[in-house]
Amino acid sequence: MRPTSLESNFITVTDDSVGRLKSLFVKKGDAELRHKLKSSPFNVAYDVVRGRAAELIAEGDADCAITMGRHINELIQRSHATLDTTVLHAAVMQVLTAVFIATESYEAALSTAADTLTLLSQEPRRKDEPFLQVLGALLYDLSFLHIVRKEYKAAERTLEKSMRVFERLAKMNPDRYGSAHIMALNASTSVYRSRVKQVNLLAHFQVATSTYLEMVNSGIHDAMDRLIESLANEGEMLMQLGKYRDAVQYYSRALKYLSKLSPEFSERHLKLSIKLSEALLHTRSTRQKGVHLLNTLLQKAVRMKSGKYVKEIETLLDEKTTGKFDILALWHKAFPK
Prior knowledge:
By secondary structure, the protein is mostly helical. About 80% of the residues lie in helices and about 0% in strands. The two termini are about 30 Å apart. About 35% of the residues are buried.
């Protein structure tokens, strides 16, 4: 199982009633389960859902954990919305995010994390214990998604906020939250080291690009292919570091040289153009250019019968044209420090 907030030592269970409440998942009907979850202290209800999800994953029944989470959410949504049911709904969504990460269903995890952040952002100034522990756990899990996508700057930001949240909670209840604070701190240190490695690797690519550019300008035609690859590598590294405007320039230069080397549009052109589109999408002022380019590339990919790239383009268009994932880039502005 991938490391997530569902680990038993992340948030420590401190209430004996958790074990008794777990039996409701098997023995009671929907109405009683909904009533018990709503009427129980938040920590008890949250620990029950977290614990049961972790047990099911350990038993190799992640599908059942997902079904359970979705079912509980349906029960909560049938209730009259209150401050308590909103945070309970967000808590179950956070657990689902962790389940998806644990089973390497990263697209589903990203979508669920975005939905959960959107739900929490409706009351961004809340400082109560239930709200903060759900926010802290969600950001801890979201950081892992950023790491998988090699977005280390974003991972560092989410972990810093998670660490601050659990530091605050640990002062209130060190037995329950002390471990989460330490785990977020350790993860943050690891991500920082990864970002330092990225910066060093970027410097290496910059030297390589300068070398190949000199060779191309000197008339060494064979160096152009390596120059294109080096420029693309720089663009990728800049994307991972969150420097999207710079990435656009490097991808554009790579495409310019590729067009000189191979004038006919190929899968290599398509792959680089998709990367350029993705960089454009990350900046609000250039987003429409990115969407327009993706729509053009989608037609080319269909004509080329390149199913892999058709799916990638459709996914990017879905993410950016619906605005659903904007919260992943803007959450730090929604929640006060």
